[in-house]
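Dissemination and training. As part of the outreach component of the grant, students in the summer workshop were shown how a complex can be specified as a set of sequence lines and then modelled as a single object. The example used during the hands-on session is reproduced here so that future cohorts can follow it. Participants entered these lines:
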Amino acid sequence: MTGVPAVSGPVAGGTASHRIADALRAAILDGGYQPGERIRQEDVAARSGASRIPVREALRLLEAEGLVTLVANSGAWVARLTLAECAELYQIRERLEPLLLRASLPGLDGAALGRMADLAAAMESLAGDVDAFLRADREFHLASYAAAAPGETTQVIGRMWNRTQHYRREFTRLASRRASLDATHLEHRLLLDCLRRDDADDAERVLVMHIRRTRLELSGHPEIFG
Amino acid sequence: MTGVPAVSGPVAGGTASHRIADALRAAILDGGYQPGERIRQEDVAARSGASRIPVREALRLLEAEGLVTLVANSGAWVARLTLAECAELYQIRERLEPLLLRASLPGLDGAALGRMADLAAAMESLAGDVDAFLRADREFHLASYAAAAPGETTQVIGRMWNRTQHYRREFTRLASRRASLDATHLEHRLLLDCLRRDDADDAERVLVMHIRRTRLELSGHPEIFG
DNA sequence: TGCGCCGTCAATGTATCCAATCTAACGGCA
DNA sequence: TGCCGTTAGATTGGATACATTGACGGCGCA
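and obtained this result:
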């Protein structure tokens, strides 16, 4: 229940709906709920000590974020993606993340780049711990965008990361077993180099290739989406 | 209340929340509600013959779409954009719409291109009627994407169009008064030509320039965002 | 006269209760 | 024995009623 830096996280004020939505989101991202798993309103209500009304609003919120699928008069399930849907989210990322990176680049200072270097190094040594790798990878990329003014682009990209989180976990599990994250590590270093050189064009290119390669490798593992 | 081809339109099942959300969305897009205007839950409930519960869920939905701004314990307002926020949405469009156009291009047949040509011609003669122009422009561009499999990209782009609708209307009002939509018309013809030639790269380029020029012209009219 | 406190009111947030709908198990029938 | 209609249960959707929060205006005081 801890650890994932929630993108649309505990920002919103004290209303119960938001608290519940935050808790559910964290549970889904951490794998406490699996894709396809049913979410019963009363269960959530009981666990959060509230009535079903705020739970319903929380579910609506998560549906809008794409994390939950609601069917009228039937129920709520943790959203699952087909391979094609997941690939589409990655294509959106390929187009939008370079935009955000470009906006962030001028504001990235030495401290931010240092933190990113630490994370990149950590990922290379963390080959075994999938969840730690996921957290570091997420923080690495989000850190590269952190100097951009938060706005719609950040929101959209955050939703893409959240929606694909489970499949990234499964893929990383596979890849780490075969010790085949070398390309990832290399691209992270390349990206850092572009940022240090303040070269936005190169950074965009590297980032596009990084996301695209991941997408193509994901497409090679349709069994993840079974 | 009619006319706007709602992007996230009356798709969803019979639940009252969705009906109310559809009605509110249409009202906002048509200008029945102005940006910054307050939306009272009881008003909407009374008008739609339902209680406040489904109204609240509808408002949550529209908040997620970016059309409504909710403040806890305070109320709901029709979302308003600053010039910077609007420009950001246009930058997202610059990156994503070419992607969608490329996906749609192979499936565009003669009928679709013919319809687009009709709409382009209509826009050129419709110089006076702002709302008719807006409808035609929207249908023109959405038609160019219609052959792509509906997915997240379509959704995101639709939301961008919806959120900027009001400001496009105001801008068009200004531009049509000065008869300065010539560049728009020209770009529409160029785009159609690329599509007829089945040239995806050129089409992407023209579309990017089309959206970017609009963004820059919008930036020249900060008074719209007062 | 201007600032700040307090009371009233309106609008939202939440809980409880009832109705409508879907699911699944059961039994009848071919 | 397999299929289908029926019925009972569970679960969600919605309405009403109450609690809570925030806003506005009046009053007192400096």
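The radius of gyration of chain B is 18 Å. Students were then asked to discuss how this feature might be tested experimentally.
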